[in-house]
Amino acid sequence: MPIVVTAGHVDHGKSTLIKALSGRDPDRWAEEKERGLTIDLGFAWQQIAGYEVGFVDVPGHERFIKNMLAGVGAVDVALFVVAADEGWMPQSEEHLAVLDLLNVDRGVIALTRVDITDADTIDLSELEIMEKVEGTSLAEWPIVRVSAIGGEGMDSLQSALVEQLGAAGDPGDTGRPRLWVDRAFHISGAGMVVTGTLTGGTLTAGEDLTLNPGEIPVRVREMQQHDAPVESLAPGSRAALNISGADSAERGMLLAGPNTVATTKRFLTTLRPVRSLGEELTGRGAYHLHVGSGSWPVRIRLLDESTCLVVSPAPIPAQAGDRFILRETGRRAVVGGGRILDPHPPHPGADLRRAAAALRAVLDTSVDDIADALLELRSTASLTDLDRDSGGGRPSTPFITGSSAMAPAAAADLLADMTSQANRFHRENRLRPGIPKAELASSLEVDSDTVTLVVAGATDLIDDGATIRIAGFEPGLSPAEERAWHEAKAILEESLGVPRASQLGMDAELLHALVRDGRLVRVAPDLVFLPAQIDAIRTALSDIPDEFTVAEFRDLIGVTRRQAVPLLEWMDKQSITRRRGDTRVLLPVTHDDKPTPG
């Protein structure tokens, strides 16, 4: 259902025109009817040439501009009203500024009260309108002369609206429903009811949503459209939702799908001042920011003539591309507007102008492009954060592990750091095959999965599972280390009653290297054997009883108890033997077992 919103100066006939078009009075409050002035938002609907049109009537009086801003957040077509007998007025200019800043580019300008205005004044009013809208999003809108009371021009107005509705097309469905709450109230026996205009995606009864700020889980119990129950709502629908799970709600809160919306107190935006401002915007004023149906006091810091940083004391639901209006409370006037670029911009010391330029370039492309731009600025980010901040985008980077993503540039920097650390490790540890992956990940403050992913696309680094090494690197012994090894080997070959490993004349690093290479088998921290000695011990076991003691094993192979006990414990772990009380049994050999180096 397309939405038509009214705009224009107070008492220029907006509500009367809506009543004539829809047959319904949009003014809901007794005070409005008594004063003949719309204070809050009014709603009506009607079938027009096959379109079921929802009308949102907004206040025109300067005092009620905040309520007016709450009504124009989801607009397909605007109906801009100017009274022919009064012409362009202050709120005409302010409402024009709002529509222009929100980029509402489809609409009709109704020149009302032509039945009580002379022809010359009507002509002058139309010329004035054409002059005022020049250079804005309203510049090409048709101007239709009408009288809501007498009926003059109403058929032409309907035709013009139908043409604009057709040009606007159907609201997009991205599968991400959002509804800014513009009214909230309790109904006895039903509970909390909220109203608003649905955008972004289809909504069904029974669906789970979150109410933001707060990410309060709620469920849609029932839905109504035009006072009738419905099971499904399409984007663009005016709706009333009966929700459970929230004790209260208020205008300015946002209903959305779970995990699809984030709130922020600091965000980067574009900024365009209204043409009637007359002086430059500064960060010294007191401002209110209007997004959707919400309004929040904010501070702004201008980065340049078209970019600013907005800071709010309260959390605001926001995503890239959302449009906003800025009012200065001292002037009680709209002073500018723009679009959110980054809901969670870099830290204050970062180059925010560069960030703004990068995001401005992709803001009207696709949500995936926005996610890519956000990731480049953040280097690494969770996929959930990128999805929320971009409005549903997923980055194209190949560097995604679990729920996190890394920008290609950041991955290249990380790879360079990995290569540097691997080279340094090789220089300081020539005998080791590579730097342990866990150690490398910890030093770079990333997880091991990220190391694995980044190295997978590299040519200079090799992932050996537990270690990372430079391509082409092979650990090797120096001449002195070769001599030490041969001397130790000769000592070991003399007898199975080998000395302690610490007495073999090799440092711990060389000993570790020989164990890794399989040239030694570590049986205990200070006990090693040659592989041939282990084979000899296993061969000797063929002559031992089916069940034997430590002493029998010791005597069989000719070692001391210092060597026999750790040897048997090692063979238990290797499934060669099994302990049974104070004895052991020899397990059958089922395959060509190879001892673990240790």
Task: Indicate the proportion of strand residues.
Answer: 25-35%
> Outline, from the CA principal axes?
elongated
Structural class: alpha+beta
Computed CA radius of gyration, to the nearest angstrom = 38 Å
Any overview of this molecule?
The chain starts with a strand and ends in a 12-residue tail after the last strand. The chain is of the alpha+beta class and 598 residues long. The protein is elongated and about 125 Å long. It folds into 5 domains: 3-168, 3-Layer(aba) Sandwich (Rossmann fold); 178-256, Translation factors (Elongation Factor Tu (Ef-tu), domain 3), CATH 2.40.30.10; 262-396, Elongation Factor Tu (Ef-tu), domain 3 (Beta Barrel); 408-470, Orthogonal Bundle (Arc Repressor Mutant, subunit A); 495-586, Arc Repressor Mutant, subunit A, CATH 1.10.10.10. α11 (437-444) crosses α12 (448-456).
Task: Briefly say what this structure is.
The chain has 598 residues and is an alpha+beta fold. It has 17 helices and 33 strands.
Question: Topology, pairings included?
Answer:
Layout: E1 3-8, H1 14-22, H2 30-35, E2 42-48, E3 51-57, H3 65-71, E4 77-83, H4 90-101, E5 107-112, H5 119-133, E6 143-145, H6 154-168, E7 178-187, E8 191-199, E9 203-204, E10 208-212, E11 216-225, E12 228-230, E13 232-233, E14 238-244, E15 254-256, E16 262-270, E17 272-273, E18 287-291, E19 294-304, E20 307-318, E21 323-328, E22 333-342, H7 352-360, H8 367-378, E23 380-382, H9 383-390, E24 400-401, E25 404-406, H10 408-428, E26 435-436, H11 437-444, H12 448-456, E27 461-463, E28 467-470, H13 479-493, H14 508-517, E29 521-524, E30 527-529, H15 531-540, E31 547-548, H16 550-557, H17 561-573, E32 577-580, E33 583-586
Helix pairs in contact: 8-9, 11-12, 16-17
